[in-house]
Amino acid sequence: MLFNSIDFAIFLPIVFILYWFVTNKSLKAQNVLLLAASYFFYACWDWRFLFLLMFSTLLDYFTGLKMQDATNKSNKKFWFWLSVIVNLGFLGVFKYYNFFAESFAEAIAHVGLKINPWTLNVILPVGISFYTFHGLSYVIDIYKGKIKAERNFVDYAVFVSFFPLLVAGPIERATHLLPQIKKERTFDYTKAVDGLRQILWGLFKKIVIADCCAEYANQIFNNSADYSGSTLVLGAVFFTFQIYGDFSGYSDIALGTARLFGIELLRNFAFPYFSRDIAEFWRRWHISLSSWFRDYLYIPLGGSKGGTWMKVRNTFIIFIVSGFWHGANWTFIVWGALNALYFLPLLLTNSNRNNLEIVRVGGKPFIFNELPKILLTFSLTVFAWIFFRAENISHALSYISGIFSKSVFSLPSIRPYYLILLIALFMLVEWLGRKQQYALAEFGLRWKRPFRYAMYYAIIVAIFWFAGKEQQFIYFQF
Amino acid sequence: MKKFILKIILFSLPVWAMIFSIEISLRNIPNDYSYKKKYLDKHAAEIETLIFGSSHSFRGINPAFFSGKAFNASHVSQSLNYDYEIFKKYQDKFEKLKTIVLLISYSSLYGKLETGVESWRVKNYVIYYGINTPKSITDYSEFLSNKLNINKKRLVAYYKLHESNITCTTLGWGGMGRKSGNEKDLIETGKTAAKRHTKNIHSEKYQTIFNNNVSILHSIIKWSQARNIKILFFTPPAFHTYREHINIEQLNTTIETINTIVSNNNNCMYINFFDDPNFIAKDFYDADHLSETGAEKLSKLINYKIDEWK
């Protein structure tokens, strides 16, 4: 079931009504309802993988309890590593086994040996990378003594499987979400309205921006050899907005949906394309994943406490692992490494924490100081996305070599003016609303009702205008 | 909470009003599907030759050139499961039916409307034919099956410009006024159409579709045998630019399957026009569809074979 489907438009009000009208007197009943709804939501995609999700949930639940009750350190260590190995094992088998088998065969072929690797013909369970990371953060936090193990299975299962975040995040932390699940929730009118507004904005981002950009980005990337350099640049820019609209749109719908049920999820995007350097970009893009890697990989590796070499090593490790998390393809690894390279000058000059606040409003300093930085960061990001989108490394390289040709100065052969105008309008709204959690909140909070409603209706018409058969979200494959 | 629900209802009223008025207006536009349904409701008992298939037969076979009373019940991207659904719906009404002409193109045995890019057409069978095989809730609705800008164009074309949405003749043929394509178009469409029609035939998905389609063929054959009705399978002509870009294994599997079926069932016949040299460039609208002249040629050839077979 996709957020942008009619099925979800029916599912959500039903669960909402049951939640606030039928089970509202008992927190336990509300959580059971959320769990049942979440499992139904997941089973709609493929019921067989529901067992994998249940197994993963049970494993982390029991290992969490065992760690909590362990009488000695080695016992605690055993349960911890059991959980980590099994969780990563599943992820490895479903997501990375074929990649390693084929890469090994290719490497062996270079020394003259030919082997036919045994590969698995399995589909990737949707959301496996997300719920595995939920579970891992939980067991790591228990192991480190940051939290206590959850004894109520339903509460823990809701933490792992809560349907708004189940298939594509945000990657939650037990410290943030579990207390909310355990606490009695009361209906808050303002929050519910805000949730609906965020859902509307998320749908706009997905259906109007991402899906329209996808049409051209796919056409250009899939036939890149046929297009001029300028068209290839346009294709990369379209993909840049596609992936932003797609993933941040998904996150907006997830956050808005959770808010309808009185639950606040972690913010995942904070206007990343207005970043003034790549470090700021990574504080604003897929925040829940970046912070996960920071807390559970970067800091345990030593973070930035050691010497220069250690900082550089750790930075490359987290960016490459983060790239690899996205998929079993060398393109993601190069994308991660490229971002690490972008990050390096900032790290070496200790200027990676220069831009912590959102970019300020207009004026001369903005035009001469911040705007060029935003444009440079955006260009670097566009370039890196080419690797992310390409089928393989040679496709990415041929795409890039196509850009760096004389034809880059010609007029693009594909010129969807309506889409360029739409993107410009979208970015204007994002710019005006950049101080809020999401752009539309700015208008929802400040505009008078007639203007506000006119804007909502315009967005709804735009959604129907461009909505065809629902399109998959990119991050579902991760 | 009550305030919230009330406000949502009030806010969404104009949206619901828009959706319902557009839905009703769209359903009131006569189209090929509603026309064909009406024709079959009224004339099923008189039909002697019934033509099924996708755009290759919708554009390529004109019943006007048939000696008996023929009707073309095919349509764009109509896969074998929908041929069968239409057939089942009227099977008891076909009193004079003597021959079924069934398209077996390069992609027929690996095609299923629901899984392709034309899956939005499923709603036409659900809404207009009353065939109840929807996969999604959107298949029950005109409004939800297309983008609003496409629906707007349809509404303007019919209600404002008074243009008909029916593209077929009274006998169900949909190739009127289709002139032969230029050389460039034939080259380009050859590549793109072949790519679109070529499937990963060894995958589980296409193996399942293949098996289902073969079983549909057996069901139609079984029914026809009991009523002494003949089935003529045909593979339509394709321009060389299309033939050069196909997967030969997919084509061979298709042909071998049909040949096996024909050799085991004496009421079946198969004609393969795929690389028939009689069809030249001017007979093609694009690399895999016939022009008006090409359709006339093919229709006459098939009619001749049917008459000869009798």
Counting DSSP H or I runs of 4 or more residues, the number of helices of chain A is 19
Task: Name the average pLDDT of chain B.
Answer: 92
Total beta strand runs of chain B: 7
The secondary-structure class of chain A comes to mainly alpha
How do the helices and strands follow one another from N- to C-terminus of chain B? Answer: HHEHEHEHHHHHEHHEEEH
How do the strands of the widest beta sheet of chain B line up side by side? 2-1-3-4-5
| SS-based class of chain B | alpha/beta
Q: What's the total helix number of chain B?
A: 12
Overall 3D shape of chain A: globular
Topology summary:
The complex is a heterodimer of chains A (478) and B (310).
Chain A: H1 6-22, H2 27-46, H3 50-69, H4 73-110, H5 128-143, H6 153-161, H7 163-166, H8 174-182, H9 189-222, H10 229-260, H11 278-284, H12 287-298, H13 308-326, H14 330-348, H15 364-389, H16 393-403, H17 417-432, H18 439-446, H19 449-466
Chain B: H1 2-27, H2 32-43, E1 49-52, H3 55-60, E2 70-72, H4 80-90, E3 99-103, H5 122-129, H6 142-145, H7 148-160, H8 183-197, H9 204-226, E4 230-235, H10 240-243, H11 248-264, E5 268-272, E6 284-286, E7 289-290, H12 292-309
Parallel strand pairs in B: 1-2, 1-3, 3-4, 4-5
Antiparallel strand pairs in B: 6-7
